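I'd like us to work through together how a protein chain folds, taking it slowly. We need material for that, and I hope you will provide a protein of your own picking. Go ahead whenever you are ready, and we will take it from there:
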Amino acid sequence: MASFEHKLPADVTQADVLALIARLNRDPLVHGILVQLPLPKSLHTETVVNAIDPAKDVDGCTRTTRVASPAALPRCRRARRSAASS
């Protein structure tokens, strides 16, 4: 397994984060994307998380319309509440 870590500065712009996710979505060597929450207050969490291609969604919580596995539902609900409050 290859793993790529992208540590971005706390003052990163929303556009830069979305551009990185778009690049990772297009990269055939990337099979999964995980965004570490919470994000800085300057970023809109739902927009960032929803930018991930569902085929590359590591935790199954990316889209609010996706059905996550029953085991993941409590974690997804917490993530969604966190995203809604940011």
Residues 14-26 form the longest helix (13 residues). DSSP finds three helices and no strands in the chain.
